[in-house]
Amino acid sequence: AALSVRAFLDYKGMGGHPIKGKVLSYLAKDPAKRVPRAAKAFALGQSIANRGIGLVPGIWRRRMTSPVLQGPGPALDFKSLARELGLTEHNVFKAENAPVDRTVIYFPGCGGGLFSRSIGLATLYLLLRSGVNVVLPEQHLCCGYPLLAAGAAEAYKTNRHRTRQALIDTLITTGRAGLKATALLTACGTCRESLESYDLSDELVEPLQHMDAMQYLHELGGIAFPQAQDAPLYHAACHAEWVGQAKAKAPEVYRSALSEMIGVKADLSPGCCGESGTGAVSSPEIYNRVRHRKTQRLEQDLADSGRERPVVVGCPSCRSGIKRSLLLMGRHNPVLHTLEYLALLDGGPRWKRHLRSMLDSGAAKGRSLTVKP
Q1: Model confidence over 212-232: pLDDT tens digits?
Q2: Count H helices, E strands: the chain?
Q3: How far apart, in whole angstroms, are the C-alpha atoms of residue 326 and residue 323?
Q4: 137: phi then psi, degrees, rounded to nearest 5
Q5: What gap in Å lies between CA 329 and CA 331, rounded to an integer?
Q6: Backbone φ, ψ for residue 95 (5° rounding)
Q7: Distance, CA of 165 to CA of 170 (rounded, Å)
């Protein structure tokens, strides 16, 4: 109902921030090309801002309403996941000796594909280590939820049609590689919620199961993770990652599953991080209050913790939001997506090198790359 009202206001020209609307409209016309370019521009801008913000007196910064001007922000990636993996050459990653139906389509979205490619790399690494075949779209795809939340209903429908067709093409590539996809995975609750409205059943004998990658790994149980040294603090996202549970219960189920996987009890930190995509920039007065409440909660949750205690999240946007709050608090606890955290546990600090070694030594055939987990 709220999204319908938002779409009506946008239709009447009362949608809110005019620049935000124009930017989203521009990006929505060609997401595959324009969104990656915009992400590089944002990353460069954030880097420049982080270097220059220290020159602005603190008393001035505290008066600013925009979170971008209040202090240093979380660094964003300049290099995309597609470029890192060379997806235009091969986007089918076969785990050696894995069954053909133990295959998933992984949708990295903007968070895991552009702004924090480490999330996408960690997802691929853990799935391959678990003996799962992974297929990624060969070009960047956006789930379109920011358009929906901004009230741009028509642009959202256009993007959904375009993305749906790209996913069908990915399924065709999967079949040609001799594989059968059974699940569509994300590492972002927002992407998963948006993709649930994509009907791909006409193109498949059986519909794909929509699931978060962490939940998939938990249910598969393919990796025995070593026990964690420090119990992590888990921040629950507004868009619940876990499927098959009521949204109010999903955070606790996620926390419990994570605790089971790492052998120590993870603590739950509720409350919105206040990042909310473009909302924090276009409506800073509202989101500053939300962020302030979350900061107070983090002060309480981390009161007896050292700087080594990690804060884990299941949402790329929350990864930025929590990091922003900790920077404003003067804390330097590591903030990791759950999949990055699990990859670190499994492969150690050099897990990315391990992944690269797996890929470099893989056997290429057409669009497929067969690797040894």
Answers
A1: 999 999 999 989 999 999 999
A2: 18, 11
A3: 5
A4: -60, 140
A5: 5
A6: -85, 125
A7: 9
Tens digits of per-residue pLDDT, 284-335?
777 788 889 999 999 999 999 888 999 999 999 999 999 989 988 999 999 9
Length of the chain, in residues: 373
The pTM of this model reads: 0.89
Beta carbons within 8 Å of 249's beta carbon, 6+ residues apart? none
- 10 Å CB burial of residue 285 (0-12, 13-18, 19+) is exposed
* Degrees, nearest 5: CA angle 89-94-96: 135
- Rounded Cα distance between 210 and 333, Å, is 32
Q: Are 120 and 90 in contact (CB under 8 A)?
A: no
Question: Which residues 6+ apart lie within 8 Å of 224 measured at CB?
Answer: none
Task: Outline where the chain has alpha helix (H).
Answer: 2-11, 18-28, 31-52, 58-61, 67-70, 81-85, 109-110, 117-129, 145-149, 153-176, 189-195, 213-220, 250-262, 279-282, 284-301, 316-329, 338-347, 351-360
Tell me the per-residue pLDDT of 74-91, one tens digit each, with 9 for 90 and over.
888 889 999 999 999 999
Place of tokens 């700087």: 307
pLDDT category, 274, cuts 50, 70, 90? confident
DSSP 201: G
Whether the pLDDT of residue 201 is over 80: the answer is no
Cα–Cα nearest to 257, from 285, 230, 288, 219: 219
